[in-house]
Structure prediction request, 1236 residues.
Amino acid sequence: MAHELILKRKRASEHGGKGSIENQHKKIRHSSDSEDGSLGDGSEGPLDDTEVAEEEWGGIDSAAGKEVKKVDRRDSEHVNKPPTRDELRAIKEASELFKSNSFKFQIDALLPHIRPKESRIKPLDDFLLQLHAFLMGLPSKPPFSSFGCISGSAKRGIAVPYPAPLPSDDTAWKVAFEKPVNITVVGSWANKTGVKSSSSVAWTIDIALEMPPTIFQEKDYLDCRFFHKKAYYLASLASAISSNKQLHVDAHYESLYSGNRLSSLILTPQKDGSTIDFSGLNACVRLLAVLPSSCPISLHHLSPNHCNLRVKTTEEAAVASSRATPIYNSDLLMCTTSRAHLLRTHELVRELPSFRDALALLRIWANQRGYSPGPKDRGCIVGFEGRGYLWTALLQFLIIGEETFGRETSKKEKRRTLGRGLSSYQLFRAALDLLANHNFADDAIFVKGGSMFPPEAYKQHYGAVFVDSSSVNLLTGVPLVSLDLLRHDAKITLDLLNKSSADSTIDPFAEVFLRDRRQLSTRFDVVLNVDLRKTHLQKSDLVETLDFGGPCQYLLHTLATVIRRALGDRVVAIAVISPTSDTRPLSHASAPASLTRINIGLVLNSNAFRLVDHGPSVSEQQNEEAIEFRDFWGSKAELRRFKDGRISESVVWEVKNSDERARIPSSIVRFILARHLGLDAERDVQEIQKDFDDLLRVPDTLSQRVVPPGVRPGFKSAMAAFDNLVRDLKGLDEDIPLSILNVSPTSSDLRYTSTFTPIPIPFKSASSLSSTMRYLPSMDVVIQFERSGRWPDDLSAIQQMKLAFFERIASALMTKVSGLRAIVVTGDGKSFQGGLDRAYLEIVTVDGWAFSARIWHDREVTHFERLLGKKKSFVTNGTASTTNAKALDRSERQSVLEAYQFYDRYFVHAPRHHHAIASLCHRFPAYPGTVRLVKRWFSSHWIHEGHVSGEAIELLCASVFVNDAKDALQRNDETRTDIPATKELGFFRVILLLRDWTWESGLFVSLYDTESSRTEEKDGAAHVKAGYGKGVWSISTSEDREGRTWTSEGPDALVARRVKMLASSCMKHVFSHERDSLNPRVLFLHPSNDYDILIRFKPDILCRAHQSVDVFDSTLKGDKRYANIPSTSSEDDEPLRVDFDPALTYFTDLKRIFAGTLEFFYDPFGGSVIGAVWDPSLLAAKPFRVLADYSPMPTELEGKSKQKRQVVLNENSVLAEIQRIGEGLIKSIEVQHVRV
Prediction:
């Protein structure tokens, strides 16, 4: 038959005779080619060896960006011919279906790379021929006691992989061995439908060995008799193969999801360079012992509602259990389907040219998301190991339709089959649509072709039903949580493909096919690592355990079931990821008896953090549902009366703060695993949420020394203080000449995004704190008065007018509010240069909240534009204007330009940015925590202060939550399926963005919810010009099309590259430790060996040491021991240090003074060291020039050289100046890299 591959005994001639294995492969691979003379896969099929350059395949990730070399088959006479119908159709599909031409080209380039190279298959073919001859020549073994062969095989070092229940000494039936009746290459290799997932995963060639029917009896379907005979058959094969040195292979056992019942024999090459050494293909051969078609075993007894495991209980030794064993029956039935699956797949490949490529795309998509065994350290989604035929059956169902079992269905109920002329991409999308919108638990699927059992039998005994035409439920043993996750991933992919366009910043091809989605940290909101070594099930059933194939499989099923029920609608999907099955020596009869560790990932819903779960009402207390509810929740279940008068069973989760509330889902998992699996909630179930929470708060051991008694810190308290201040300011209408129109907040403390929770320090409590603990950061606000024509028409006069307003407001506030302090501050580091807007009003409320208020006058922008020549000055008497741009020299113009940039950033963009970010904090609960963690990360790596502004970080984080203008406009965020629900997931995705972001091309963020955002996205991205000015990042919005408002001052190219390097190192550490022992604090520890200079502070001048990542109690040296004893410090004349951090002020001065000579880095949150690197352009000798912006010194000339003396950087002079400026602050200066 053309669609069948049978290994022949006769060796083919070297020229490829009629019976050669190579020709047999071609009979299947190109059976459809002979019909029309074209490739069997159609226009999207793989190219042959004359078209594709031979190269080493490194996995899916290495396929991106590679070009496929094609031979131009067109003759010169056909060059000017018009496009054919197929070509026109391909052009239309590229523009409409694929949304972009590049997406189609990328798919076409990918497909040849995921298939094996033909040049490496010949050694495998030679080995298969030799293996065939060897197997068909094996001698028979007489019947032997199934119990006695255990000890006999053990003596030879070959164990028999018997599944439970094991045969006993009184077992009457016997085992035997005879050569196979038939040997067939089955699975994806025979039909060329397999794909390569990664370089570490080998190709698997499945060989079905049909055991002779003479060794079986009619009732071998009972009590694992068939599986015991199959195990002995494999052991006999293993013994024969391992003793044969001519095959040059090593043999191992492998057991998949059903324990030893589906054991197989794995043959791997020995890499000895022989003619049959196929190690260059990176493949292994799997021998499957299957039932022949003429087997005496009655298959009608394998219905899901039959009991074929007659386990005798201890209470009733003579009574056999009568419970159904659907999983056991399905496993036995599976041993009859390998040949049928081969033929059906080949028929689909022959009839649909695009089927092979569509199946390849679907399998790549599934492999990248963990729905198949991948690398050993990544694990597999529970239930999907060994489910390779499932993806073929999905496409088969879409093409041939479903079985109706004779019932009439309406047009709405009937599923329409797909046309056979669809492209591979259309078939792939149809499969995703089925997975995204179909619930297998509620709606069973039966592929057309008939089933030998009634549909009710499947629906009654299986959680999910997808039956192919072989009567096998392909979802047997797959937990519902895994199917929920599959549906969730399919929805995300469809959403991405539907929104992708030529203008999109996201590459859909890379996101769908290339990016490895097996990583837990960037995929799930909550990740828990569970140690199962001390598991003790609360309830266990022997029959059910044997039905699942062993205790490990039953444990995973129970774990997935109880977690799904406990979390309910709190989650969208749950992932239970277990280690993939590994091969074991032939001396080991079974795989390890217990699992050691698994991973659980949660995708949370919007109501995941609710405090109460409701159960049955009081009227149903005695029914079965109420009893089951109390039994499931144990001590957590309680009877409660609610506000609406209802009395019902409920589960209440007590929390003390918002951080504990965010950990409710993980707390539920901890509790339920402790109750039903006997685990220790603290020891055996690990999660990292609390470790991240600790990074954003002061340690509990130090909080009493930082937070004064009776003070209520927090964002809501700060906002309440701001509201009180606004009310007090607007009540000054009678005391100031102009009414206050608006007071706009611009501080991150007033929009939930400051790194640490704001803490007030009342005057009465300040004396109880040590002098270093009296630092009080202020919150910036902008005051806007009503319009008036009495403002002066000169910038300097406007600043004087602002000072007058500040003095009047300060006096009025202190008179009106008792205990409030208001001071006019001039000449601080935040002010403009050149004498412009150098003052602000510092306000400290009675409760200890500090504010910095500035006045915005809208007419200032007009004066700035006139000074800079951007706007004409209207002169009345024909005389020249004193504010003409030509009257400004270079330094004055630069000063005015800096003042204008500050004005635009502080008074125009900052209030608008504050409002947009505050809105995001309300829309996305995980957003503020994400921003705080990312700011903490930037600060801990010394690149936040002075390099990357807080507003730029907020925009980066916003891009993870709002990725295009359409999402910004759409208020119903439930349509988005990939929004982070926890700050931990948001943090990891931002770091991943920093790792992969090509900052030279800029970034557009749809921050502002305006109708113009749709058109501004494309236009804004077009105006991004990264690379000019000091800062190289460009983060644009619809209100800042150039993207330079928050990045013009940094980061520069040096810092931008360091951010990318640090993000890459962090993600590499996360991905390598996320499955066992990830310590988040390690991600925030900064290495200092890359700096040329380290400037160490004295510990007693650090006013924020308690905020350090590696804070120790010894670092907080204070002069105060008891709150009721006044401090004797000489600094008592300054009870509060508002915005005065000596270390940060020193760092700011160093950056200003030594700009162009040294680049400084510092962590303002408790950092005790300033790192600095020399400008490498100054290290080489240069000719002397006047007014150099660095400290030079002449070089030494050798002998009487006539060369002109050059100068080099005087490093010692610079270090001495740094030491002088920091007198009393710094402890030491360490030079790590000495220049010769």
